[in-house]
Structure formats: structure tokens, C-alpha cells
Amino acid sequence: MGRLLWDEGKEFGKVMRRLRRVKIIATLGPATVDKAIITGLVRAGADVFRINMSHTDHTALASYVRIIREIESEMSRAIGILADLQGPKLRIGAFDEGSVHLRKGDVFVFDSNPEPGNASRVRLPHPEILAALKVGDSILIDDGRVRLHVVETASDRAHAVVDIAGRLSNRKGVSLPDTEIPISSMTPKDRTDLIAALDEGVDWVAISFVQRPEDVLEVKQITQGRALVMAKIEKPQAIARLEEVIEVSDALMVARGDLGVEVPLERVPGLQKRINRSARRLGKPVVIATQMLESMILSPLPTRAEVSDVATAVFEGADAVMLSAESAAGQYPQDAVATMSRIAEEVETDTIYRSIINAQRGELPNPTSADAIAVAARDVAQTLHSKAICAWTSSGSTALRIARERPQSPILALTPKRDTARRLALVWGVHALETRDAVDIEDMVLRACEYSRSEGFGQDGDRIIIVAGMPFGSPGATNMMRIAHLGGEP
User: What is the pLDDT of residue 473?
Assistant: First the structure.
């Protein structure tokens, strides 16, 4: 048998094979810095760990990565690591008395004056915003708690009328849902953090506040394939160019926190569905994030509404669901992961789950021979009740194409690349192992069958579907499908 990523003979990989298809991302933070706790999160169901660079310095980043890789080796299981870049943080200046109260109908000025603010004005230390604002544009302060609209502009100031009254205090955040700001989504801090994350060997990088496809391409020019790039959809400008952003991204995150600030809250569920289905059509993984089990920060049990929220994402066929503060700073991080896992397992065994998943299939955007093989593998596996679809994949593209089809059979991805196995930890239904590439068809079939048995997918007499590309080791060359019986022909 070929060399696995971890020592041969370990049984933990078999024991840890998930029974669910959707993946779970757990954010690390003050509540989860200990190796024993992070190990517990993996055992509870975490497949990928998110490191939020808004709150993590490079020393802590290196410590997290080291711990995760140690656990990965001990558990004989590929674990993905996602570094989430902070992005530009737009904030107002300070007030001479610390805060002011704005009343509805007041005219308030945002300007470039460095003096402390008062009841009629405050500094906005972002000249690019003042230059970009137009009459009618909305200005949201403090996550939308105070809302204004622009009535007059100049090069160094903007006059705005208060629509939603409230208190403004020092350095509160600014959101501009109607304004495309001519700045990069990458700040100098993000560039430094990105280089540090790449040097530590993270698998995914998430970009915050994406507005345009160029924001994604800018990051890809730096990563150069060393990590895959995930675009966080949290601004109306990104939604307006959604297809273009999806096209250049390796994955998407529906970042519902900031998205719910910049668009009316009632639009968020529909946008979540639209983003999820558009990305799936193009074969790009989708992560649903923010406040999924928010009450479990302080409570060992979620609310019924939160359970329904997680279940909805699973019914939609999302690749992954994510925990933020629940695992990073909550009192019950392992319970939160375990709860999310149980919800997903229950949904995926529901009698209507498969019909909903199947109904979401659409036409392939650019049919190729590789796409045709993926569709055929799904159909043949369903007809024959195959225990697994085994994909030999170098770059991971074969497994991604099959996952896009959401087959009933689980997907066993065999890859000669360690990075590929880790990146596929994020993808719906994929159980990835590193092993040497197949040398010929006989070797391909033999080891696919051996791994299917050893990883707990089936037993002698069961059938599996094998998908690969000829010649072996050629990325993107998927052109062959084979039906095999475990233990040989019955």
C-alpha cells in the first residue's frame, strides 16, 4: 500500500471519518489556546480551524499552526487552517467630550479637520472616503446603530442628515453600503499578516471587505498558489459583481455580520441562498458564517432559532458552517462544535434532504470532459448504491468537481500532495488522504479498494466508483471512470 500522510497502521483515521458531508470551521481564540482543548474540538467535529488575524499576532499564529499540525499528525487526519485577514477598518475620529448624541433630522459634518469632534462635526480620517461620497449615499456608524445620508459634498467634507438617531463615541466603525471606495481590501497590516501566514503554511486565506474581483487577484498575486483564496462577501459592491468575484476566487464566505449591516437584514437570507447556489454552480466551496450558535458563547444549549439557522445552511448544501466567538471566546467551545455536528448529521439523514439537494442542481457553466466524468460518477454511484466515489487527484480539482454534484456516496480523495489533502478538508463530502500517486490502472484500482476498506467506507463485496486522469499525475486531466468491487469480483 502507498505511503499515507501519517504513519501506516494507525486506526484513528478510520475512527474519525465523519458521517456527515458538511464541514465545520471553528475559530480559535482566548478560549481555545490549549492543545488539549483544540484536540477536543477536532474530536467534537471541527474539520478546519480559522485564525482571525484581527486578534492574533504572528507569535500566536505560529503557535496555533504548530499545535494544529501536531494534532494532525497524532490523529492521522488532514486538518485545514484558514487565516482570516482583517481588511480595512474605517473609523471616525474622537470627540472632545468622548461622545455626542445625534437627533433625527440633525445635519452632521464629516471632515478632515484633526481637531476633536463635537455635536455638529467629527473627523473622518480617510480622505479617500470623503472624495468618493456622493449626495444620497448612506453612512452607517457603529454597525448601523446610527444612520445618516449625504446631502452635500466637498473635497474635504460631507454634510449628512441623521436618519436613525443615536449616540456616537470615539473611533466607532463606519460602513458605506452605497459607496465604492477606491482603496484596496488589503492594508499594510494585511500584507504583513498574509506573508506570515504563508510562511507558516496555512491552507486558506480569507479576504475581508471584498468589493471587486481585483481585490481577490491582488491577494493571489502574493499567494502564488501557496494557499487558496477565499473571498468574504459582506459588501453590496461584491454582490453587484458576484459572478466576477466567484470566478476569480477559490471559495466564498457569506459573512453575514457585516453583510447584515450594509444591506437590510431581511435581504440576508435570500442573498445567502443566491451566493451559495451561484458558487456551487461554478464548483467553488461556500462557507456560511456569523452568529450560527451565538447564544452558546454563554449557554451550553443553543436557541431553537439558531438550530434552525444551522439546519438551513446544511439543507442548502453549503460546504461548511462556521463558529466564530462561540469557539474563540465562548464558555462551551467543544459543546458548540458537537452541537453543530449533531444538527448537520440529523439534517443529512432527513428524508427530504436529498430531494432538496438534488433540486439545486443546475446546468454546468462550461462543460468539459472532466465535468462530464464527475456527473457520470454521481449517476453511476447512485444507480449502483456505491459505498464511495474514490477520486485520484493532484490539485484537488477532481474532488471539487465531484463534490459540486453532491453525490449520495461519500468522496474519498487520494492525493500525492499534502497541501491538497488539507485544503480539501473544507469541501463538502470529501475525506482526503495523502498517498503516492498511482503508477498504472491496476495499482490505481488496488489501492483505491484498500483505502476504501481501511477508512471504513465499505467491506468485501461492496462496489466503489474510481475517477482519475490519464496520464497519472497530470492536474486537471480527469478522463476516466472505473467500477470496482472491494475484495475483487464477487
Answer: 65
